[in-house]
User: Fold Ferredoxin--NADP reductase from Flagellimonas hymeniacidonis.
Amino acid sequence: MSDFHALKITAVDSLTPNAVTLTFDIPEHLKNTFAYTAGQYITIKHTVNGEELRRAYSISSAPSSGKITVGIKKVPNGTFSVYANESIKTGDVLEVMPPEGRFVFESTSEAKNVAAFAAGSGITPIMSIAQTVLESHSENTFVLVFGNQSPEETMYLKALQELQEQYTNRFFIQHLFSRSQEENALFGRIETSTVNFIIKNKFKETAFDAFYLCGPEEIINTVSDTLKSNGISEDKILFELFTSSDAEDTLAEELEGKTKLEVLVDDETFFITMDKKELVLDAVLKEDINAPYSCQGGVCSSCIARVTEGKAEMVKNQILTDGEVAEGLILTCQAHPLTPTLKVDYDDV
Assistant:
């Protein structure tokens, strides 16, 4: 489940002065392995300056395209994002894990009205979702609220314009720019007033079936809270964080003693003795066990495992539902063991 595959890059295209897209060649024998649902991401593993890096990047292409493309924005003082923007070229080979993720849109036979709020590189999975929504049903509509600093720094601006021309009566974009005054765009950032303007004014006659939110944690919290205050049920609000605030690990300070940890991954069982102050994933990786992981910050879903015996508690959880937690699922990058023994299963998730 945590296997990587060597994929060749067939295209490197500039999106903005600080962002590129990478398109991967998927060999015929890996087509099924790399089949994906709109909104999912891939994890890329690569060694830069002697250090192994893993990064999760959302797929921006639609499943119907038959290809996998990701957008990568250069992060100040970043490592892989800088490498991708400055050094990667067509023909290079990267190690890639098959697509995963729960921030998805699956088409149905019924027409849907979908809205999305994205900021910066948060547009990446929304591109895949928007294209799939629009092409999967002739009566589907899609409203996009997209915040950026300026048009020059707006990822996928040309592709969005093309989508708008193709689906004139079904695809609507409200741009916001925080550092540029532009015609037909709002000035500023996505705030409570922005959400209210969209759902209570500009599209007040539209009953939305789902809202997709992607970007920094602060914006997602603002949009989500505002939607709920307007009577939108929580099950209609889906979100994916690209960045998250660091939660203080006060739980570790309270824990004492050791835990005998049993780990099942890829049909192999491993036994570890770990300190309860450690996080489960850290202890697993320390033993060179090939467990799946990517962000190690609790914003992706790569490291989910099921607790089959014992108890663990997460420092923070912004991925799993209450029902999934009740079923024993944990983010191992955020979980401390609470019991003398703990069994986790990476295969049964």
User: Anything to note?
Assistant: The chain has a mean pLDDT of 94. The domain at 5-100 is CATH 2.40.30.10 (Elongation Factor Tu (Ef-tu); domain 3). The chain has eight helices and 19 strands. Residues 312 and 337 are 4 Å apart (CA to CA).
